[in-house]
Amino acid sequence: MKERLEELQAEALTKVEEAIYLSDLQDIRVAYLGKKGPITEVLRGMGKLSKEERPVIGELANKVREAIATELDAKKERLEKEELEKKLETETIDVTLPGRPVKVGGPHLLTSIVEEIEDLFIGMGFEVREGPEVETDYYNFEALNLPKGHPARDMQDSFYITEELLLRTHTSPVQARTMGEYQGAKPVKMICPGKVYRRDTDDATHSHQFTQVEGLYVDKNVRMSDLKGVLNQFAKQFFGEDREIRLRPSFFPFTEPSVEMDISCKVCHGHGCSVCKGTGWIEILGGGMVHPRVLEMAGYDPKEYNGFAFGMGPERIAMLKYGVDDIRHFYTNDVRFLKQYHKA
């Protein structure tokens, strides 16, 4: 039995020395030191030994186990160290290489335009208001002097959800809601930016979804000259001090009188070119004095209060300011287009 234990020790130590992989060591450990290993089998025959031989064989068996385990642990440590050294050699990092640049996004061009418009009008004392994009027929049309059956409704082909709910066709409902909230108790000076929706065929200058920024100022003794002054200030701050404006008569159901505003062409400076179609002017927005009927429906006394309103499209403004020739560039999310307008 003694000879068998010594033989198993020599056999196990030889296999440990020849082991190449960590998995080999685990197999040897299970084979020789496991419950079903040969050492355990030898110990099961100790019952046949005399009382004097049992402690001697038991002590020897423990020494054999310890010797095998010690050699297994030592070989495992050597193999792990070798494996780490190989990994370090193959995964060497050259700290002198330049770092990879981190791609950082920026605001969308339309977002920047809207924020620039907001900052400009906030500087003139306007507050920014928002409203729902799913709007009632009343606030989208009726409260703005467009009763059911009014022919001007055909100018805004709408996305109806039910007979009384639709996707708003302009941001003017926010103006009607704000005036209705105040019920003639105090003046209103606000702008309302947001998305609007109309059933339109998408092309280079039209989209079924676009953005608007509309403004409203209601108070006592508001005049058309106040509207002209605000719009002139907007044009010069946004497009440059050398830009001129002109107001032309127009028609909108919720303003009377109504006007459209043109700015002088930045290419020809008003002399006429292909960009402005030879006129020297480019249309940019519409506005006018708030219709007395709109004031009355919102709870304001049109004999005491009056005001002006205006509306503009950030897409058109961006196209004019940056020379963008197709409105679809704003929505197709082409990074090559968008990254031109990232501000550092």
UniProtKB/TrEMBL annotation:
Cofactor binding note from Swiss-Prot or TrEMBL: Binds 2 magnesium ions per tetramer.
Which metal ions or organic cofactors does this protein require, according to UniProt? Mg(2+)
Q: Where exactly are the transmembrane stretches of this chain?
A: none
InterPro entries per the record? Answer: aa-tRNA-synth_II (IPR006195), aa-tRNA-synth_II/BPL/LPL (IPR045864), Phe-tRNA-synth_IIc_asu (IPR004529), Phe-tRNA_ligase_II_N (IPR004188), Phe_tRNA_ligase_alpha1_bac (IPR022911), Phenylalanyl-tRNA_Synthase (IPR002319), tRNA-bd_arm (IPR010978)
Locate the coiled-coil region(s) and give their ranges: 65-94
* PROSITE patterns, alphabetized: AA_TRNA_LIGASE_II (PS50862)
Protein keywords? Aminoacyl-tRNA synthetase, ATP-binding, Coiled coil, Cytoplasm, Ligase, Magnesium, Metal-binding, Nucleotide-binding, Protein biosynthesis
The UniProt annotation places Mg(2+) binding at E256
User: What GO CC terms are in its UniProt record?
Assistant: cytoplasm
**Catalyzed reactions:** tRNA(Phe) + L-phenylalanine + ATP = L-phenylalanyl-tRNA(Phe) + AMP + diphosphate + H(+)
Q: Cite a single GO MF annotation.
A: tRNA binding
**Where does it live in the cell?**
Cytoplasm
Which family, according to UniProt? Belongs to the class-II aminoacyl-tRNA synthetase family. Phe-tRNA synthetase alpha subunit type 1 subfamily.
Family matches, as NCBIfam families = pheS
Q: How does it assemble?
A: Tetramer of two alpha and two beta subunits.
The protein in question is named: Phenylalanine--tRNA ligase alpha subunit
